[in-house]
Design brief:
- This protein has strands at about 5-10, 15, 20, 25-30, 35, 40, 45, 60, 65, 70, 75, 80-85, 90, 95, 105, 110-115.
- It is mainly beta and about 120 residues long.
- Helices cover about 0% and strands about 35% of the residues.
- It is globular, with a radius of gyration of 15 Å.
- A hairpin with a 4-residue loop joins strand 15 and strand 16 (about 110-115).
- It has no helices and 16 strands.
- It starts with 5 loop residues before the first strand and ends in a 6-residue tail after the last strand.
- The strands form four sheets. The chain has a six-stranded mixed sheet, with no helix packed on it. It has a four-stranded parallel sheet with strand order 1-4-9-12, with no helix packed on it. It has a four-stranded parallel sheet with strand order 3-6-11-14, with no helix packed on it.
- The protein has one domain: 3 Solenoid (UDP N-Acetylglucosamine Acyltransferase, domain 1), CATH 2.160.10.
- The mean pLDDT is about 90.
- Pfam families: Hexapep, Hexapep_2.
């Protein structure tokens, strides 16, 4: 079983009413990050199968937030997601897959909308 810890880097701000959940897998947040209010970062979620909910297990994976990442208010980051250094995730986004370094993502589910290598579309 993986380590069940929450690690937060230096100079990282975590806004009010955020939920940081590390169930059986670590949640690692880099340095110099800004995490907006009401964000929800989890390393495990219920299984989705035909069993009654109370009998379902959990599935999970590590979550890693790189350095100098900005998560807007109300962002949800699901298990197994890695967000690269210098990335931005827009308010209210639901991140279901990895965000490459230097990209800006938004939406439900979150998708790329710009990058440090190209102008906004």
């Amino acid at each position: 079983m993986s380590d069940s810890r929450i690690l937060v880097g230096e100079m990282t701000y975590i806004g009010p009413n955020c939920f940081l959940g590390a169930h059986r897998h670590p949640l690692k947040i880099g340095r110099d990050c800004m995490i907006g209010a009401r964000c929800y970062l989890i390393t495990a979620n219920h299984e989705t199968c035909a069993k009654p909910y109370r009998e379902q297990g959990f599935r999970g994976a590590d979550v890693v937030i790189g350095d100098n990442v900005w998560l807007g208010c109300g962002v949800v980051v699901l298990p197994g997601v890695n967000i690269g250094d210098n990335a931005v995730v827009g308010a209210g986004a639901v991140v279901t897959k990895d965000v490459p370094a230097g990209e800006t993502w938004a939406g439900i589910p979150a998708r790329a909308i710009s990058s440090v290598n190209r102008s906004q579309t």
